[in-house]
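Researcher: Please predict.
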Amino acid sequence: MQAIPVFLLTTRKTLKTKQTKTHHFQQLFVSLHPKNVRAGKKQESLFSQTSSRNHLSYEQQVHSMKDLSKREQSNTRINSAEHENLRAGLKDFAAIDFETANNERSSVCSVGIVIVRNGEIVDSFYSLIQPEPNYYNYWCSQVHGLCQEDTEDAPVFPKVWAQIEPLIEGLPLVAHNKPFDESCLKAVFRVYQMDYPDYEFYDTLAASRRAFRYLENHQLHTVAAECGYCLENHHNALADAEACAWIAREIL
């Protein structure tokens, strides 16, 4: 057998020692990252947790990881007291949702309204609208399924709003992604030279990001499901308004 030079053995040993130290330092650095430190509680380092799991069976490791995931999720939830402080305490409001025919915000082609009083849904309204400008692009039709033929004989916005106005009188409006629906409403008021009443708007999207930080996303159907509502006809304006109302009752 060929003899290995002493300096090579020494080099290998030194390299192995350095790698081990580097590995331990990396694990310690990760364990001390703010995301891995729980406020007010002394936590095991990531290294000690990993070391202990190495001696567990596969099934025990799976259960251990699930427990860690649950703790991670529970730690991101807002406690009930903090959640109550964030709530606006809305009991009476009107949830609203628009669908548009094209990229112009004034091109509303359908509207859904759900009226909530004293925390209960008491009325709803839905109408197709002849959009302005009156054309549909492919992508908008792909989203909501409406096309030119659907709104060819639909009333124009002022006639539709004349029916909505008495329903929402004195109520704040609520939308999921307020910037979109509010801008649609303002744009179509401007196109028809109507006086905008400066409606008070609340946003369930912003509220859900505070209340449900642990969700993978805060799209309407995801947040509605978290609040116990199954949204089956997404992008139908009335269905979306009802989902929004359900969410608002839970978190606003």
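Model: The first strand starts at residue 93 and ends at 100.
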